[in-house]
Design goal:
about 425 residues; mainly alpha; 2 domains; 18 helices; about 0% strand; globular
């Protein structure tokens, strides 16, 4: 009834009411208690009606869904001895969730930052990317600190120093004067905490990559492939602790980010993303990768039942991104682009919505998932790895991630319509820094 009255009044005196409600839309009109007044709510309704007249570019739900699925896979895979990990992507081909995450990071980064580069210039675009890099760095350091506190407490409480050794945190205890500054400059990286440092450096490459991409897709792909080849075949990499350097070599993995960005730019410009003639080879390669990995060998009694030798292709390098892994993720992306339309009805189902919300808030969900995987591992070490415990660990962990993603989505929605969302001060100020 309030909205109806507003529309009737707006029709009588449009100019005066427009000025009135614009004044009411200012932050000062919102009560600090987090409860909206009737006038503020009325202003919000008018603002929503005005915004609804503008054309809205639909978000590709496929990006959110598959990125969210990759994040859930990462959570499951990071729990040693987890039976559910036998069902994740890494058991069905050469690539795993990390490749999906980086490829879609390039795709979404191009869509997120290209308008800033085009409308406000290269400096403004680079500045916006730099702010995102800073956010990633803060979240990474925070995750390392919380992981150290969490596993140190578990090691002391259960008298199990292996909890620190599990991801290489013992270096903090034994040599803090070395570990702290090395971790601060990303030289010292802990096991399972090395994806965000990779993403930080990949985003640092993004402005240069975008500048090249604007000249030519072929140019940026040739240069990116040359850098990858120098890493994969020539040993180009970054030093780090432990002595073998970065687990994810950024000089190699930048190719995957570039491929994702090029794909997004083609979509943005309404250029064809795939050709039907290439779909059968892509499907054949994905099937070949599955046959080599042989996921059914994890079933008791079928351990030695293989159609192809497991060592047929030798070691499939992850650090320097083996070409087998690149081809696999490209083939899977090709199949998804060809066979899963953005308008697919199942993408709007409640279950898919939970996964998509995780993908929409990838940074927060990744960091929280990492901490939950460490907690789940400790629980399984202390309570046992029986089926009941594993079901409980996976169910609770995935539920917490889903609920957190829902909260973040509601919080963002509240801000987008000018409302003050009820807040939990500690959760908002420490774990959830204000979004830009």
């Amino acid at each position: 009834m309030v909205a109806k009255a507003c529309r009737r009044d707006a029709g009588r005196e449009p100019r005066r009411l427009t000025r009135h409600f614009r004044a009411k839309e200012t932050p000062e009109s919102l009560p600090k208690s987090g409860v909206l007044t009737v006038k503020a709510a009325t202003a919000g309704n008018i603002s929503l009606m005005q915004k609804s007249q503008a054309p809205v570019q639909k978000r590709d739900v496929r990006i959110d869904f598959f990125r969210g699925l990759a994040l859930l896979f990462i959570f499951v895979d990071h729990i040693p001895g987890n039976w559910l990990a036998d069902l994740t992507m890494r058991n069905f081909g050469f690539a795993d969730a990390a490749e999906v995450f980086v490829f879609l990071a390039g795709f979404s980064a191009l869509l997120a930052y290209s308008k800033t580069f085009e409308k406000e210039g290269f400096r403004s675009g680079t500045s916006r990317v730099g702010r995102r890099i800073f956010d990633l760095y803060v979240w990474h350091i925070g995750t390392v600190v919380v992981s150290l506190l969490l596993l140190s407490a578990a090691a002391l409480f259960f008298s199990q120093p292996n909890y620190l050794n599990h991801i290489g945190l013992q270096y903090f205890i034994n040599y803090p004067s070395h570990a702290i500054p090395q971790a601060a400059v990303l030289y010292y990286q802990q096991n399972m905490l090395n994806i965000l440092p990779l993403y930080i450096l990949l985003l640092a490459w993004f402005p240069v990559m975008y500048w090249l991409l604007r000249r030519s897709h072929a140019l940026v792909l040739i240069i990116s492939a040359a850098i990858w080849l120098a890493a994969y075949a020539g040993g180009l990499g970054l030093p780090g602790h432990p002595v073998w350097g970065w687990f994810f070599n950024p000089f190699a993995w930048q190719l995957l980010l570039t491929l994702g960005a090029v794909a997004a730019d083609r979509v943005r410009r309404n250029m064809p993303l795939y050709e039907a003639v290439l779909l059968p080879p892509a499907a054949a390669y994905a099937l070949f990768a599955c046959l080599v990995i042989a996921p059914w060998t994890r079933i008791p009694g079928l351990e030695s039942t293989r159609l192809l030798p497991g060592d047929l292709l030798g070691a499939i390098d992850k650090t320097n991104l083996s070409p087998l892994r690149i081809l696999h993720i490209v083939a899977l992306g090709y199949i998804v682009a060809a066979c899963v339309p953005a308008s697919a009805r199942w993408l709007t189902s409640p279950g898919a919505g939970v996964i998509s919300r995780c993908g929409q808030h990838s940074l927060e969900i990744f960091c929280l998932g990492t901490l939950l995987s460490f907690s789940g591992w400790v629980v399984m070490q202390e309570a046992g790895t029986d089926l009941t415990t594993q079901i409980a660990v996976n169910t609770i962990g995935i539920s917490v991630l889903g609920v957190t993603a829902w909260y973040l989505a509601q919080r963002k929605l509240g801000r987008s319509v000018g409302l003050v969302w009820p807040s939990v001060p500690l959760f908002n100020r420490v774990l959830l820094p204000p979004s830009r």
